[in-house]
Amino acid sequence: MTVSIITVCYNSSQTIADTLQSIRQQDYPHIESIVVDGGSTDGTMSIVAQYADVVTKSVSEPDKGIYDAMNKGLAMATGDIIGILNSDDMMASPHSISQIVAAFREQPNGCVYGDLVYVQQQNTQQIVRYWKSGKGTARKFYFGWMPPHPTFYVSRQVLNTCGQYDLRFPVAADYEYMLRVMVKHGVKAVYVPEVLVKMRLGGYSNQSVNSRKRSFFENHEAWRVNDLKPYFFTVWLKIARKFKQYLAKP
């Protein structure tokens, strides 16, 4: 099975080498690495060019935001398994993709996710926050649960059935997508009980206060557009779950 890994970036010269190096170090041989750049001006694509042995496809052009760029990557992907690893993220170990593929052998037409750690911007060995996912079901979404998006991989069949990211959600399209996959379409998931990805604090995914406010409203809207009815406390519990991540230990 071929794994397509989509890396979205914009002016990421300080971090993208770590991202691509973590892909280069994977012990699984069948990887399609796709870089979708938003038209960087800081030399990002010069760094990407240094990883010609890793990057299978790349494009650099303006986009309509991070999820539009992800959709471009999805359209370019040819793999049997597809996931996102953005330019402030890294694979946690050389075995991460092998573990994901092994899980797909258990559930070929499903989705797979694992655990994630947030690390310091400059010292990526310093763990600040640990997102231990645990085994998830569609039902757990109603109680504020969701898997970490950077660890979330889907099969080609799931992508074809569920579609791409919804650009009506500029902040929470990842949440809406996973909700659509696991709850609306009932796709079965396999949990890999390992840290699969390291995410730097301070990147796009670590939103500003205003973005977090918008995310709150978009999370509610994500249920509505999928004709789903959450409990009144569902989105509040989603926020509350984040506090546990500061107390958990890898």
Secondary structure elements and pairings:
Layout: E1 3-9, H1 16-24, E2 31-37, H2 44-49, E3 55-60, H3 66-76, E4 81-84, E5 89-91, H4 96-106, E6 111-119, E7 127-131, H5 138-141, E8 153-155, H6 156-162, H7 173-184, E9 189-200, H8 209-225, H9 234-244
Parallel strand pairs: 1-2, 1-4, 2-3, 6-9
Antiparallel strand pairs: 4-8, 5-9, 6-7, 6-8
Helix pairs in contact: 7-8
> Can you identify the CATH class?
Alpha Beta
User: What is the percentage of strand-forming residues?
Assistant: 15-25%
Determine the CATH superfamily: Spore Coat Polysaccharide Biosynthesis Protein SpsA, Chain A
Inertia-based shape = globular
What is the arithmetic mean of pLDDT?
A: 94
How many E strands? 9
Helix content: 25-40%
Note the total helix count.
Answer: 9
Query: Which structural category do the helix and sheet elements fall into?
Result: alpha/beta
CATH architecture: Alpha-Beta Complex
From N to C, what is the helix and strand string? EHEHEHEEHEEHEHHEHH
Distance between the termini: 30 Å
Residue windows where pLDDT falls under 50 for at least 5 positions: none
Largest sheet: 9 strands, mixed
The total tally of domains equals 1
Supply the key terms.
250 residues, alpha/beta, Spore Coat Polysaccharide Biosynthesis Protein SpsA, Chain A, nine-stranded mixed β-sheet, globular
Characterization of the model:
This protein is of the alpha/beta class and 250 residues long. It is 35% helix and 22% strand. Strands 1, 2, 3, 4, 5, 6, 7, 8 and 9 form a nine-stranded mixed sheet that branches. The chain starts with a strand and ends in a 6-residue tail after the last helix. The mean pLDDT is 94.
